[in-house]
Design goal:
Length: 465
């Protein structure tokens, strides 16, 4: 059945990008039609950010109980009910689903929902079941799903991913995690702290390959001290099931566990959308777009994981708003390349801009300076018992181009550095800011000030005595 009404905007997918795009659209007077095949909220709510952070919060409580003697309080072996932890995670998810992410909230804004599988049938038409929606613009926000490697026997043995792990009623007591990215690292620490025996198998020679190497090593060593068994340069060739255990084989090496978690990357959700038929180009990382988020068909836009630019909730929301802004406002929207991120381990590892290696490759060795400070110089970190961390600031021709923080609140601390990079500020601009004492952010100011002290030494001849 054809839809007689021509809409302003059809949004395909109501996850992180679609949620923000729908609200922004209604704010500017555009009434979007949303096509959703499953649950509102997408990966972030149901399989990503929310459940993993709830897991890490539970693990943090267990860790505090286990190490309370460091603060003069009697330590104890925490009695962990894994099933109860998982039930709490689902309660947190449902609370968000029933409030901020509820369809009713968006319907009250004027958003129309159509449930089913979407398929592009033209530059301005989307088919859903027997209905065809016609729209001036289409925004695809279908996200991504866990990638599954072609390992012999893996499918037959069965495995978990970041999607299915939250659905189990009885979480495993031992697990082998395949992968070494943010999802794998967060799951490893969270589960290990709750008493699960965790082994990580990584094909490369380090964890968190997109982050500043020395800080990634710091997080790696922290996990190892807490009991996570981390193995590098492991190429898994097959999986078997023996006496009820799942057995991972890599040559002569063997690891046995109750379960396997696959966390080796993401695959964009483009299947079944009919993109080839309407001329939308799709690359290895996802739908190809220009810097305005337009696909090769100008009326069709893509944002978030499905476009493969930055696979983060916050960037999906930002890109979706920029796409809607480009559709309906004068001028041009633009996707930002400066996208910070944070891996929420303990310590957290936050990243903004270039790593030291990237800065040298882009600007040249002579123009790049790297400044470092460990948190054992932070009064707040020492008082909190969280001085296992560091800050790395990177400049090119004196301007800040990269910032990397391993600290208890790195995700909060990184924001001033993002602004500084965006505005082309120098370290002396950060040093000139008065930071509240005692905070972890004081260390950002201290490190910036140290760089200025070195400059001041060279100008001692100007001192009036």
């Amino acid at each position: 059945m054809s839809d007689a009404t021509k809409h302003d905007l059809v949004l395909v997918g109501m996850g992180s990008g679609g949620l923000v795009a729908a609200e922004f659209a209604t704010t500017i007077g555009v009434k979007p039609v949303v096509v959703e095949r499953a649950r509102v909220g997408g990966d972030c709510l149901w399989t990503g950010c929310v459940p993993s952070k709830a897991l890490l919060a539970a693990g943090r409580v267990a860790h505090h109980i286990r190490t309370a003697d460091e603060f003069g309080i009697a330590a104890a072996d925490p009695q962990v009910d894994l099933s109860a932890v998982w039930r709490r995670i689902r309660r947190v998810q449902q609370r968000i689903a029933d409030s901020d992410d509820s369809p009713e909230r968006y319907e009250a804004m004027g958003v129309e929902f159509v449930y089913g599988d979407a398929r592009m049938t033209g530059a301005t038409t989307v088919a859903v079941g027997g209905r065809v929606l016609e729209s001036k613009h289409i925004l695809i926000c279908t996200g991504s799903r866990p990638a599954v490697p072609p390992i012999d026997g893996l499918a037959d043995a069965g495995f978990l991913t970041s999607e299915s792990v939250w659905e189990v009623e009885e979480p495993p007591r031992s697990i082998v995690i395949l992968g070494g990215g943010p999802i794998a690292v967060e799951m490893a620490q969270g589960m290990n702290r709750l008493g699960v025996e965790v082994t990580m198998l990584e094909l490369g020679d380090r964890l968190l390959v997109r982050d500043e190497p020395e800080l990634a090593r710091l997080v790696t060593e922290r996990l190892r001290r807490e009991g996570v068994d981390i193995r590098f340069e492991v190429e898994v060739d097959r999986v078997t099931v023996e006496e009820g255990a799942k057995v991972v084989h890599a040559g002569d090496q063997v690891w046995r566990s109750a379960e396997i978690l696959v966390a080796v990357g993401r695959t964009p959700n483009v299947d079944g959308l009919g993109l080839d038929e309407v001329g939308v180009k799709v690359g290895v990382r996802g739908i190809e777009t220009d810097n305005r988020l337009r696909t090769s068909v100008p009326s069709i836009y893509a944002a978030g994981d499905v476009a493969g630019r930055h696979l983060f909730t916050h960037s999906a929301g930002y890109e979706a708003v920029m796409a809607v802004r480009d559709m309906f406002f004068p001028g041009k929207g633009k996707a930002d390349e400066l996208v910070p991120w944070c891996t929420f381990t303990d310590p957290e590892l936050a990243h903004a801009g270039l790593t030291s290696g990237e800065a040298i490759a882009e600007h040249g060795q002579e123009d790049v300076e790297v400044y470092r400070m460990t948190l054992d110089h932070s009064d707040r970190a020492r008082a909190d018992g969280s001085d296992d961390g560091a800050i790395v600031l990177i400049t090119a021709k004196e301007k800040l181009v990269g910032a990397h923080i391993a600290a208890a609140s790195a995700g909060e601390m990184i924001q001033e550095c993002v602004l500084a990079i965006r505005e082309g500020m120098k370290l002396r601009d950060l040093a000139a800011m008065v930071h509240v004492y005692p905070t972890l952010s004081t260390s950002v100011g201290m490190l910036a000030a140290e760089a200025q002290y070195e400059r001041a030494k060279r100008l001692r001849w100007l001192v009036r005595k």
